[in-house]
Amino acid sequence: MTTVVIWCQVVDYFGDAAVCWRLARNLASALAKDDSLSAEVVLAIDRPEVLRQLVPGLSASLNPPSIDGVRVVDWTFPAAVVGVMISTFGCRLPDRVLESMGKQQPPPVWINLEHLTPQSWTESCHTLASPNRTNGLDEIFFFPGFDSSTGGLLREPNLLQDRDQFRSDALERETFLAGLGVQEADRKLPAVLVFGYPDAPVDALIETLANGPPMLLLLPSGPAPTNRRGNLRVHAFGWVAQRDFDRLLWSCTAAFVRGEDSLVRAHWAAIPFIWQPYRQADQSHREQLEAWLARWRPFLPEAATAAQAALARAWDLGEAAHLAAAWHGWIKHLPELKQGAADWSRQLAAGPSLIQSLSAFLRDRLESRSTLFHRLRHSRLDSR
Q1: Partner of 208 for a Cys bridge, out of 71, 117, 324, 341, CB 3.0 to 4.6 A?
Q2: Total structural domains in the chain?
Q3: 159: part of which helix (H) or strand (E)?
């Protein structure tokens, strides 16, 4: 059996753990269906307590040994004999692991799964390799992305069918919102999800929406009482399990999302949304935002494109003074934005998912590694 170890270091918030857990769970499911590759998926995470908030079944002792086909371990995992190493987001593996990798025969396939970026330069860097100074092994850079020349986006095989089924039955939405504690009368309202970083101008948005038509605003930011502000019903609640975040998006007319994991899920939800990139001290996150806005252009009329950019920039800059005007300009184009989101989601779904791309790549590399190792072994034996 081939052991695949995914290494996750939690830097800030929940994004690292969220992406790694979704990656591990989906990869385990895909490999279990692959008769040509018998594999075990292990997720080594330096802060399991963060993952527990997303995976309620994960106990403090990291038992049971497997959840959704994934064995979760802490950062002390020995990783003595491993077929595939996946270091996520450029995290540095422990020195003992790097050294043991160099001693393995055959050596493991080593993937560095990078952050998702809408910038186009990733297309020329996808699957490039770089020799590591510690053990001399090639570290292969694998980029998720929005183009066929990258690794694609994380997506479960039946995700879009599940989405459409959820939306086709009004009772599904009603039941889900009731489970979040939303009052019966408020479940009928159009909903907006706001999932932003702490500096997002949420208060300014609430003031703006309070003066508009009746609406439900969903805030997955921690337990808080439900309150009404003008025509707006604000419902705050604690963290939901990762699988329920999709249903949260599917229940909404529009959304504000952040980081990487919720960005990808918003694309699959096929609803109008605004993205807040992860903050960078050098302000490089604004380049990410502009690159993402540029990717909307083929799917939106010119006026809707301008409205999308105006609201996204006001949200990113936290400009309360400009947020109201940007929101009113954006909401006028909601039909075009909804159609554009659906068209973009459909185009993305036509290509392979990240798991399909990664599974195929690993299968090819493992087969090539095995063939080369056997050839070298027999060559040495023949030379004696």
Answers
A1: 324
A2: 2
A3: helix 159-168
- Say if residue 177 is in the same domain as residue 80: no
Residues 322 and 364 in one domain: no
- CB crowding 152-176: b at 16 or more within 10 Å, else e: bbbbbeebbebbeeeeeeeeebeeb
Q: What is the DSSP string of 241-253?
A: PHHHHHHHHHT-S
The catalytic residue positions are 16, 260
**DSSP structure string for 217-239:** EEE-SS----EEETTEEEEE--P
Quote the domain boundaries for residue 341.
159-349
Q: What is the DSSP letter of 297?
A: G
Is the pLDDT assigned to residue 343 strictly greater than 70?
A: yes
H helices, E strands: number in the chain? 14, 13
Let me know whether 178 and 285 are in one domain: yes
Nearest to 356 by CA among 2, 26, 39: 26
Same domain for 260 and 214: yes
Strands (DSSP E) found in 108-181: 109-113, 129-131, 138-142
> CA angle 319-323-325, nearest 5°?
135
Cβ contacts of 60 within 8 Å, gap of 6 or more: 52
For the stretch 88-104, pLDDT in tens is: 998 989 999 999 988 88
147 and 177 housed in the same domain: no
The structure tokens 């392979």 sit at 352
Residue 213 carries which DSSP code?
A: S
* Structural contact between residues 48 and 294, judged by C-beta atoms closer than 8 angstroms: no
Q: What is the pLDDT of residue 185?
A: 93
pTM over 0.90? The answer is yes
The three-class DSSP label of residue 347 is: helix
